[in-house]
Amino acid sequence: MKQLIQIIEDDISVRKLLEISFKEYNFSYISCENRRVAMTMFLSHQPDLIVLDLGLPDGDGKEFIKSIRELSLVPIIVLTARDDESEIVASLDAGADDYMTKPFFVNELLARIRANLRRHSDKEALKEVYEVGELKLDISSRDVILKGELLKLTPIEYDLLKYFIINSNKTLTHKQILEEVWGIGYQNEMQYLRTYVNTLRKKIEINSTRPKLIKSVSGIGYRFSID
């Protein structure tokens, strides 16, 4: 069964390019040009992934992302001409999974679509035990095993590591992490996050000064990388 992609794009030329590309690469698609129709379409069709422009005629795409996140964890890729850091951070904070700027390469977009669909599928399939190299996290027992030995983590360290691993290879903003791990009201407590990331790196990285797992994304947040 073909996977269904929802295109929300008011530029006709870009929308047509996406439609042709998705059809050629064996995806089904539905498309529209504004938020109002997009929500109706989403509720009716339940797409597997959304490709979203931010500059829509009836409002900002980030508000659409927030509305979708109240309903679904469907992967959302922002495709926009806006290239400043504040827009990237705001979109990821709102719940987008990925961000690409125009002009863009179709093959890169297709690769990102496949990667996001794969990660979403993996997250639905794997719920109890996560293994990353010699690191193993058991959700049900809350045990973390490193090189065969039980690793001692504080509750916050465990929650932080769990959030990173569940969202592996996804860029997470500082605000997202603070909200998810510490809770609402802690979005600006950057020092908390830096301190715990440094501590966690010392416990799970071979060389904490050159981390291979918890990588910093300058000005945005962190990414837990799995090759």
TrEMBL record:
Signal sequence extent:
none
GO MF assignments: phosphorelay response regulator activity; transcription cis-regulatory region binding
InterPro entries linked: CheY-like_superfamily, OmpR/PhoB-type_DNA-bd, Sig_transdc_resp-reg_C-effctor, Sig_transdc_resp-reg_receiver, WalR-like, WH-like_DNA-bd_sf
An annotated GO cellular component: protein-DNA complex
Residues in a coiled coil are none
DNA-binding: present as a keyword of the record?
yes
Would the keyword Phosphoprotein be found if you checked this record's keyword annotation?
A: yes
Summarize which parts of the chain are annotated to bind DNA, as ranges.
127-226
> Per its UniProt record, what Pfam families does this chain match?
Response_reg (PF00072), Trans_reg_C (PF00486)
User: Domain named OmpR/PhoB-type: which ranges?
Assistant: 127-226
Q: Which PROSITE patterns match?
A: OMPR_PHOB, RESPONSE_REGULATORY
**4-aspartylphosphate occurs at which residues?**
D53
The identity of this protein, by name, is: DNA-binding response regulator
